[in-house]
Amino acid sequence: MMNQYCGTSRIAGCQFSLHPMSDQFVNIILSTLEEVDTSKVWMETDDISTCIRGKMVHVFDVVKAVFLHAAKTGEHVAMNGTFSIGCPGDSEADVYMDETDVPVNEEKMSEISQPAGCKFALYPMGTEDYMDKIYEQINLSNDRNVDVTSVHYATRLDGDVHDIFQALYESFDLVQQKVSHVTMTFSLSANSPTNR
Ligand SMILES: Cc1ncc(C[n+]2csc(CCO)c2C)c(N)n1
Questions:
Q1: The complex's ipTM?
Q2: Which of 170, 179, 178, 142 has the alpha carbon at shortest distance from 158?
Q3: 163 within some domain
Q4: Total-model pTM
Q5: Which residues constitute the domain of residue 182?
Q6: Model pLDDT for residues 25-68, shown as the tens digit of each residue
Q7: Which atom of ligand 1 is nearest to the CA of 30?
Q8: How far is the CA of 32 from the centre of ligand 1 (A)?
Q9: What residues does thiamine bind to (predicted)?
C-alpha cells in the first residue's frame, strides 16, 4: 500500500465544480479561483471541475472560500463535489502536507455572511457498520447551528455558509478518525430564486 501519511496528517482532497447561473459564469469561475488563496493545496482545473489536495483543514478552507467568493456576487451559484480522505491511490501531494494548520482564507471571508442550502452524503468505505457511522454524524448535525433535514440518500443543511462548512468538516473529520477511507459528496446552492 502506498504511504498516505506525512507526520500525523493524511492527504485529503476535493473534486468540485462551480456553476454560476449567470452569463458572466466564465469570469465568476476564473476570478473566484484567482481570488482565493490556494497556496497551501495542490490544485488542478480543467473544463469540468477543479481538484485540490492537501491537509483537510486547507482543503475545506479553499472549497468554502471559492463558494463564498462566488456567492457574494449575488448571482445564483451552485457547487457540487466530492471530498475524499485515505484513498489508497493518493500519495503524491506530500509536499503540501508540511503546511501549518492555519486556514489562509478564513480572515478575508469571516466577514461574509451568506445563507445557503446544502445536501451531503457520507460514504465510509470498506466497513460493515457503515450505516452506524453515518447515523452518528446525522444526529450530531442536529446540534450545529444549521437546520437539519433528512432527505432520500442525503442530509440537508440550511444556514449560513460558515456553519454549513463547520458541520460538513466535523462530520467528515469524525468519520475519518474511525474509518480509513471516507468520501463525502455535497451539493450547495446560494441566492436561488426558488423558495425552499
Ligand atoms: C471550480 C470549477 N472548476 C472548473 C470548472 C469548469 N469550467 C467551466 S467554465 C470554466 C471557465 C472557462 O474555461 C471552467 C474552468 C468549473 N465549472 N468549476
A1: 0.87
A2: 142
A3: yes
A4: 0.92
A5: 5-91+112-190
A6: 999 999 999 999 999 999 999 999 999 999 999 999 999 999 99
A7: 11
A8: 10
A9: 18, 50
Whether 55 is covered by a domain: the verdict is: yes
Verify whether ligand 1 is closer than 6 Å to residue 16 (CB atom): yes
Is 99 inside any structural domain? no
Identify which of 33, 21, 44, 63 has the alpha carbon closest to the alpha carbon of residue 191. 21
- Which CATH number do you get for residue 119? 3.30.70.930
C-alpha–C-alpha distance, residues 165 and 159, integer Å: 10
User: Which three cell numbers, joined as nine digits, stand for 137?
Assistant: 454524524
> What is the distance between the alpha carbons of residues 152 and 110, in angstroms, rounded to a whole number?
32
User: Which one-letter amino acid corresponds to residue 147?
Assistant: D
Residue among 57, 54, 47, 53 at smallest CA distance from 17: 47
Instruction: Tell me whether residue 97 is in a domain.
Output: no
Decide: 36 in ligand 1 pocket, CB within 6 A.
Answer: no
Of all protein residues, the one whose alpha carbon is nearest to atom 8 of ligand 1 is 47
